[in-house]
From TrEMBL:
<comment type="similarity">
    <text>Belongs to the CcmF/CycK/Ccl1/NrfE/CcsA family.</text>
</comment>
<feature type="transmembrane region" description="Helical">
    <location>
        <begin position="286"/>
        <end position="307"/>
    </location>
</feature>
<comment type="function">
    <text>Required during biogenesis of c-type cytochromes (cytochrome c6 and cytochrome f) at the step of heme attachment.</text>
</comment>
<feature type="transmembrane region" description="Helical">
    <location>
        <begin position="137"/>
        <end position="163"/>
    </location>
</feature>
<comment type="subunit">
    <text>May interact with Ccs1.</text>
</comment>
<dbReference type="Pfam" id="PF01578">
    <property type="entry name" value="Cytochrom_C_asm"/>
</dbReference>
<protein>
    <recommendedName>
        <fullName>Cytochrome c biogenesis protein CcsA</fullName>
    </recommendedName>
</protein>
<feature type="transmembrane region" description="Helical">
    <location>
        <begin position="221"/>
        <end position="244"/>
    </location>
</feature>
<dbReference type="GO" id="GO:0020037">
    <property type="term" value="F:heme binding"/>
</dbReference>
<keyword id="KW-0472">Membrane</keyword>
<keyword id="KW-0201">Cytochrome c-type biogenesis</keyword>
<dbReference type="GO" id="GO:0005886">
    <property type="term" value="C:plasma membrane"/>
</dbReference>
<dbReference type="InterPro" id="IPR045062">
    <property type="entry name" value="Cyt_c_biogenesis_CcsA/CcmC"/>
</dbReference>
<dbReference type="GO" id="GO:0009535">
    <property type="term" value="C:chloroplast thylakoid membrane"/>
</dbReference>
<dbReference type="InterPro" id="IPR002541">
    <property type="entry name" value="Cyt_c_assembly"/>
</dbReference>
<dbReference type="GO" id="GO:0017004">
    <property type="term" value="P:cytochrome complex assembly"/>
</dbReference>
<feature type="transmembrane region" description="Helical">
    <location>
        <begin position="15"/>
        <end position="34"/>
    </location>
</feature>
Amino acid sequence: MEWSTVHNTLTNTSFFLLLINLLACWTTIAFPFFKFLIRPSKWIVILVNIILGITLTSRWLINGYFPLSNLYESLLFLTWCLTLIQILVSLQINSQIVNAISLPIDLFIIAFASISLPQGMQQANPLVPALHSNWLMMHVTVMMLSYAFLLIGSLISILFLVLTQGKSVNLKGDSSGYLTKGEPLMGLMVTEQNINNRKINSTATLNLESRMDLLQSLDNLSYRIIGLGFPLLTIGIISGAVWANEAWGSYWSWDPKETWALITWLVFASYLHSRLTKSWSGKKPAVLASIGFFIVWICYLGVNFLGQGLHSYGWLS
């Protein structure tokens, strides 16, 4: 059996496992009495991460260079990074919630890599001269990790906006939240009298507090994940500039990829600035992070399909 067939089998297996896991996540959220599916769901994410790791490692050993030389390999590596972050996030919050919004992205990437890309683009090809450098592993790995962190963090911000749509929600830095009076949260109306006198019945109070805790957890988790992705993006851009100077004799050429990487950096720098200075809270920074979600995709895929530049050869011929 050829190695390409083995790799395709492993990739297809990952796709079907992710699909099964997505259905399991949605089922446990819609029908809480299916709690017995939660533990297998966590292990499926770990299994997919291992399978993708084996696929990438085998390509590395067979071809003799780190498997980030074309679009197919980068898509697999991005999915591996996303599943790794999902595993780490599951240690902090209900993994089913994060998996429910992250697994569709994993499925899309795997399907795009396996179905949309022609076989010629899935095969490993000899590296072009500019890629014969130790910077390949350093720069591209860090950039892909930063994309994964920023995408997951932005997805959580999008979920936060969906859950608070049409409601005025303010979150405090001490992990306690409060609602503006008269604003409903998921069917619960909070009035000034209820807030001041605590006359909400015990069940409603528990539901309100648990939902506010969820919103606060999502907001904080998004902030922390983006806070991890931003330094990686910064290191990736700096290492890319050094590599560009070594390969092309210029640190910055305003290549479309470089330009959109800078735009991505500015968007998330604004998000973190607003959070650190506490000038914005709640929905406003979440909107900025949600915009960043689409900016990352433009930077990663959009410029490769639509733009012409020095980076195009690394992904599309």
